[in-house]
Structures are given as structure tokens and as C-alpha cells.
Amino acid sequence: MTMTAPTVSCRLPAELNTFVGRRHEIAEVKRLLSEARLVTLVGVGGVGKTRLALRTAYDLRRSFRDGVWLVELAALESPELLAQTVAECLEIQDRSVRPTLEVLVDHLRDKQLLLILDNCEHLMDECAVMVETLMRSVPGLRILATSRQSLGVAGEQTMPVPTLPIPDCNGSCPSTESLKQFDAIRLFEERAQAVLPGFEVSEANQEIVARICCRLDGIPLAIELAAVRLRAISVEQLLARLDDRFRLLTTGSRTAMPRQQTLRALIEWSYGLCTDQERLLWARLSVFSGGLDLEAAEQVCSGDGILADEIVDLVVGLVGKSVLAREEHGPTVRYRLLETIRQYGRERLRESGEEAELKARHRDWCHDLVTRAQHEWFGPDQVNWFKRLRIEHGNLRTALDHCLTTPGEAERGLAIATALRFYWIAAGSLREGRGWLDRLLVADAAPTSTRAGGLCLNARLAVLQSDFAPAARMLEECHDLARRLGDARILAGAAYVSGLAALIRRDFPGAVAYLGEAVEAHRESGEAMGMVNALQYLATAHSLLGHSEQARSQYKECLALCEAREDHWFRSYTLWLYGIELWRQGDTASAVEMEREAIRLKRPFDDRLGIALCTEALAWMAADDTTERAAVLFGASQESWRSFGAPLLEYLSDYHDAAEAVARERLGGRAFEAGFRKGTGLTSAEAIAYAMCESAQVAEPARKAVSPLTRREMEIAQLVAQGMTNKAIASTLVIAQRTAEGHVEHILNKLGFNSRAQIAAWVGEQGELLPGGTP
């Protein structure tokens, strides 16, 4: 049987519009990457460095066993979070206290992948240090960077990104077909067609279009901004206005301006053509990092000249002028300023004197968002809140950075960081959460309840990293402060953290005492979420002490509370722990079903730690019967723990050791090792499928699966991957737009995705499957 190569990870966003030209540049980048391990694309803003990098990486995706990965740095304002941001983009959820760069090196050491670092110019020193360390330690790593200047790292190959080829406008104009061979002309035509259907370069307008592209020096962003003007004026009027504007900027000289000035002139022209309210909104939107939705724009940017109900029309206007990019995220729509345009807006905001006020509004919006998330976390919208905070991570970082760098704002920052307590844990961002809390606690030492809450959370995150000494110091201060303030809620939280630390350190009687105190305190105050959180680990402590009846009663109470609130997160962890107790009592069938239900609940959170814990438990449960299956699961579990940079939870290690010994004895050492190696070779998705019994064959070379999509859905998925909107898909396939929308919705549902970008990545991974699908 012919085997096909395994699919590879392709973590690249879908293109929002068609990619034009650049064949020679793409070929050159590929050549450089074949010879050098670090290639930096250098050029002015708007020249197309990012698009070139992404297109080249997509073409090369099958050349890298462990995939191609994008790290967007434009919105990152805190240099100390650089390595952490790279780790997050690589989906590393390290739970140790080691330096993040060291974790990155260990994770990548045996990998063969392409890493794209986009927009490095504001983090040059930090990027250079990180890149040099990674290149020295990871032989299979290739890095493709984009920047306005080279990184200055040994072995770096720098490729200046040129503007798009343009015709010679001083000579005779070539034929229309010849003219369309120039990338700049083709780009202008395609972008013009987006705003003026039916537009094409013809004999009647070809000379004017050529002169426009020449005046714009072939800069892609400048061409796109200019083409948008055809919605309101003709090409002749567009050229006349360009000539007038540039003549003023060059004091009448006919010589070309520097490219940076050309692009800035186009951005200024776009700014000038906006209404007063659109200009005001453009400037105010620049305080956001990584995008925003309509609700955020209304809350932060309205007032003082803009009414809240005017925002939607102003946003539509800015999208139409190509100032804002529209992006679909499942059922919601978000908007993003290109970085060059965002920087221009920030300059205008600073000049207006509103920057401090808008940053404060943005901070307040973030504080309101995380406060609502905290209050509603224990309920039916938990998964949606998690996804929302994930999307807003860049904005949350910006708000926290503002609070750290603005006098008198540290306490507000501490409140934001503390309200994110379940997000830091669910997202696997223990290290980042501790980093913010450490700095904010130093910045504001006032003896307030906010400080006490920050100390309690910081201690909790430290305990989850098994970093017990600093946790103990913080708990002591937290406890003393909360007692002085008479804050029973924080005292209950401190008791919980002390109990969790005792449990992890195998002090089970101590865990029972502290966690029992926490449960009763939360019960008295009516704090259901805190009670469930403490109760599930109190039950575990009783289970480990052999108090089975008490443990089972408390697990059932936890599940009842979770089901009443339609909670997923705490219910999944209770099922994991309760399943282990049932297995210990001999009810393996019920235990296995509980572990699998826990995995189903954890999937929407991408809770890799929780899934690894359930996989480990399933390995123990399989050791009594299907010992080969146990060996595979033990191997898959080991790979998970290695990726976390931490061993299995110490208080469960006895179960692991005993079950592995049983499986080895019954299966035989050689057969166990063979199954174990199969498990270590599984991808994360394959390991989950095997644990859930969703895959009959395991650890064989990956085969191309039959597509779950119909032939028509596959065709539409390919168009989505090309960056087409529903309207463009409908036009291409000659179907109603509503029909196209329905197909896209069916595709998202079938594949279990919530964004068009995920569809694009999936299409890229299908390879030979693309020409067809199931009939």
C-alpha cells in the first residue's frame, strides 16, 4: 500500500484578498532559505514584507516536518514578553519556572520547522538575542523575519524587498496585455475591481493607470489606498490629485519623493478624505492592539464628537476606505488597523492631546471586560468567555503595560491581572500571569484588598508551577493583610492555595484541613465557584487517604453544582479525579467514560494539561486489561509531560508507577517498549483520538483521510483559503450570496472550526485531497 507523507502544521492566517505577483521575490526567498537558516526581509512600511513572507512560507510548508509558524510582533509593546509570545504561538504550555528562552530551546531542539517573526523593528535587540540563541541551539530551525532593518545576527541573509515592478512612464506606453504583465498594474486593477466592479485596464485608460502606479513608486499599500478612491472619482481625477499632492510635498520638483514619504503622502491623503468623525475614530482606534470588535469601538471611542450609535457607520466608512481591515471570527466580526496605518493614527491621537484619555478609556474597557468574564466564568458562557479573552490577549497586555508605566495606575492593573485568574490557568499562561503580578505588586505596595487578592493569585500560580518557597512568602503576607482588612473572601482563597500546595506536596492531612476550611468559608459566603474549586481537591485528598465514601460524596456534590451552572472547566477536572476514584474501587468502565467525557469538555479550551492528565489516567485503567493500549497511552502521556517541562503531578505518581509495572509485566518488556514508542510518535491530535477510541489504527504512517466535505463544500473551502469573501465566492461560482454563506457555515460546523482562518489552514494541510472530496 502506498503511504503518503504526514500532514504538517500550517499556522498561517488566511489571505484577506488575492496575492499579486512577486514570483521572482518568492523564488529568491526560497533560494536564500535553502542556503541560510536566517533570512530577514527588509523594506519600508507598506512594501509587502509580511505578505511576501506568508506566501513563501505557505509554498514551503511541506518542506518542514514540524510545520510553519507565524509570530506577529507588531502589537507587542513589552519586550520582556517576546520569548513568551513565541512560545504561545508555538502552542507551548510550559508549567515550569525555567527561563522561557530555555524552554523554547528544549522544545525546538529536535524539531524541523520554519518560524516567521513578523515586524521585528521595535524589538531589534531582544529579537537578535533570541534568534541567535535559537539558531545556535536548534539545527533544524529556519527563521524568516520581516523588519525595517536587519537583525545583525551572525549568518543572517538580508533581502531588501523591492517595490512592485512598474512600466517606464517616460517612453511609449506598451500594449494593454504587455502592461498587465507588470505586478503594480495588476494589483491596481484587482483592487480597483473590488470597489468598482467591471473596472479593467484598457487602451482608453492604460496610460493613466501606468502613470498612477509610477507616481506611487510601485508601493503595494500605496496602490491599494489609491485604488479605493475609484469608488468616488475617475482614474483621470485620481492622477490629477496625486500630481497636485506630490507637487506640494516636493515644492514643485518633478523628482520622485523617497518611498517613505510617498506612502505617508497616500496615508495623509486617505486621512484628509475622511470626514472629521472618521479621522477622529481612526486616531482613537490606534489605542487597540491586535484588533477590536464593534462593541469595543463604541465603548472606547464614542463621546466628545462621536455618538455611540454613529460608530457603526463610521467603521463601515473606514473599511470602505481600506483604513480598517475586516476579519471574521466565527459568528463575530473584528476590525484591525494595518500597523503602518495604526502608527499614523497614533501620531494624530498624540497631536490631538487625547492620547492619555483614550489609553485610560481602553484600560477601563479591558477592566470591564475581565470583570464581566470573572463574574460569569462559572456558568453557561464559560467557553465563549475563554475564547473572547484569547482573542483580546493583545489588548489586555496593552492595558496592563499602560498601568505599569503610568503613575498611579498600578492598583488598577493589579485588579485587571487578578480578575484574569482563571484565564491565566485555562490558557496555560502561568508564567505570564506571574510576570505581570510580580511587577504590579512591586509598583504598588499599598495595603489594600486588591493587593491581598494579587498576592493570593500569584501564590496560586506559583504553586501550580511547584514553586513553593515564593508561594509561601506571598501567602503569609496575603493572610496577614486579609486578616487586618477583615476580608473573608481572600482568607478563603488563601486557605485554598495552602491546601492545594499541601496536596501537591503529598501532605494529605494538611490538605484536608486547609481545603475543608476553604470549602466552609466559601459555602458560608455563597461563593459557589470557590466552593467547587476547593471541594474537588478536598475530595481528592480524602481519596488519597482512603476515605472513599467521603470522597465520592464530595465529587457528586461538585458535579451537581457544576451541572446546575452548566460549567465545563470545573466539571472536567472533577470527572478526571472522580474517574480515578471509581477505578480504584474497581468500576473501570464508569471511570473510563468519565475520563473521556472530561476530555470532551476540555477540548474547547485546548486544555492540554487537563487532556494529558486524562490520557494518563486512561493508561492506568487500560493496564489491567488491554496492556498494549496502556503502553501506547503511557508513551503519549510522556510526550505531553515533556512538552509542559514538568513531571506528572507528584501526588499521583504512585498510581503511574504501579500501573506501568503491571503493564510491563503482563505485556513483556520488549512489547511494552514497542507500544510506548508508538505513543511517543503520536501527534497531539492522534493521541487524543486514540484515547477517545476515535481511531482504529495508531502510529502508522499518516494517511490522507477522506474529506468530510462534499465536492461543492471542498470547492468553497479552497476559495475561502484564497481569502475570498462570501460575496466574491458567490460571484465566482454564480450562486446566491446567502447560499455561499450557508455553505461556509456548514463547513465550519463539519470541521469543528470557528474562523475562516482555520478553514484556510485545514485546506493547506489536505494536500492531495484538494482536487476533490466525498461525492
* Low-confidence regions: 1-8, 249-256, 696-705, 767-775
CATH-derived topology of the domain at 10-160: Rossmann fold
Q: What is the overall shape?
A: globular
Strand order within the widest beta sheet: 1-3-4-5-2-6
CATH architecture of the domain at 10-160: 3-Layer(aba) Sandwich
Strand content: 5-15%
Q: How many strands in all?
A: 9
Average pLDDT for all residues? 86
What does this structure look like?
- The chain is built from 38 helices and nine strands.
- The protein is mainly alpha-helical and 775 residues long.
- Helix content is 63%, strand content 6%.
- InterPro entries: AAA_22, HTH_77, P-loop_NTPase, Sig_transdc_resp-reg_C-effctor, TPR-like_helical_dom_sf, Tscrpt_reg_LuxR_C, WH-like_DNA-bd_sf.
- It holds the Pfam family HTH_77.
What's this entry about, in short?
It comes from Nonomuraea helvata. The protein is mainly alpha-helical and 775 residues long.
Fold topology:
Layout: E1 10-11, H1 23-35, E2 38-42, H2 49-60, E3 68-72, H3 82-89, H4 100-108, E4 113-118, H5 124-137, E5 141-147, E6 156-160, H6 176-179, H7 183-195, H8 206-215, H9 220-227, H10 235-249, H11 259-273, H12 276-285, E7 292-293, H13 294-301, H14 311-320, E8 324-329, E9 332-337, H15 339-352, H16 355-376, H17 382-391, H18 393-405, H19 410-419, H20 421-426, H21 430-443, H22 449-464, H23 468-485, H24 488-504, H25 508-525, H26 528-544, H27 548-565, H28 569-584, H29 588-602, H30 608-622, H31 627-644, H32 653-667, H33 669-680, H34 684-691, H35 711-721, H36 726-733, H37 737-751, H38 756-766
Parallel strand pairs: 1-3, 2-5, 2-6, 3-4, 4-5
Antiparallel strand pairs: 7-9, 8-9
Helix pairs in contact: 1-2, 3-4, 4-5, 7-9, 8-10, 9-11, 12-14, 12-15, 13-16, 16-17, 16-18, 16-19, 18-19, 19-21, 19-22, 21-22, 22-23, 22-24, 23-24, 24-25, 24-26, 25-26, 26-27, 26-28, 27-28, 28-29, 28-30, 29-30, 30-31, 30-32, 31-32, 31-33, 31-34, 32-33, 35-37, 35-38, 36-37
